[in-house]
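Before the break, one more example. Copy the sequence into your notebook; we will annotate it together after we see the structure.
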Amino acid sequence: MNRPHPTFQPILHTTEFPHAKEQHGFALNMLQSLVIPTFVIDIDGKVILWNAACERLTGVLAREVLGTDNHWQAFYEERRPTLADLVIEGSRRPVDADASLESQNWCEMPRVGRRCFLAADASPIRDASGKLLAVVETLRDVTDEKRAQIALEQLATRDGLTGLANRRCFDDTLHAEWQRALRQQQPLSLLMVDVDNFKQYNDAYGHLGGDECLQRIATAVANEMRTNDLVARYGGEEFAVILPNQSLKGAAIVAERIRCRVEQLHLPNLGSQPHVVTVSIGAATALPSHDTEPSQLVATADSALYRAKHMGRNRISLPNTDLPGKA
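Here is what the structure looks like once it is written out:
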């Protein structure tokens, strides 16, 4: 078991530099008094400095880690290298010998009981001959900035009413998935989902009731999705579902599940038959090629949706094949 050292161990050897001891003492005091969380590990990965700011950030006291290689416990639940450890590891490979590293990532911070998004910089400390003596890592807690960035990204890509992806996100995702399907030669399916007789619902229950209806349908549709599928509010009472690597048969199965789930919400709509809210769904599948465009997939699914509406609503429609739902 490693025994913590009660004092800081010199980084520079006084026999190598006439004024090394004095310089080292100054450097030590400077690092200890920095308001920036800082720690230093030697070439064996043992902690030789853990300043007060690092204690405040991590909740781990210097006496708990000095002389040990347990500094990872301040940041993670399971053992994994810190950025400083990676610098030492890289120094053993000549190609990376002079590398400093920087990164930003989420850390669990077990002692303080919350996740933090930390920006870290790690740099080697060398003697005059270039020999690696230690690595210093500085940390910045940028959790608030990261959360603000996430919130802004969500505002840009999420629909404010339903929380689903918005039209912009749908367009970007469809293009990206089209390119991926093209590279991997996989099918790409699309569902266009429209709420039946929504105008009558709004007339009967008002816009607030209409908003709640859309929110409940959005949740119902999202609950039928795989992790890599995307549900978006396409506009008004219309939703779009991107199904990567899904055949037309598979898309039809998903569509029917969505249709049934919405009907089973039993949202009353006296202006329709049956007297509950239902959806019509158009499905389409493409095997992307250099001669086709994502807009063609949208147009095909739209046409199928139009057929489903024309045939009486509350059903799904496929290109050249119609699969009626419950009438």
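The longest strand covers residues 116-126. Residues 20-146 form a domain with the Beta-Lactamase fold (CATH 3.30.450.20). Try to locate both features in your own notes.
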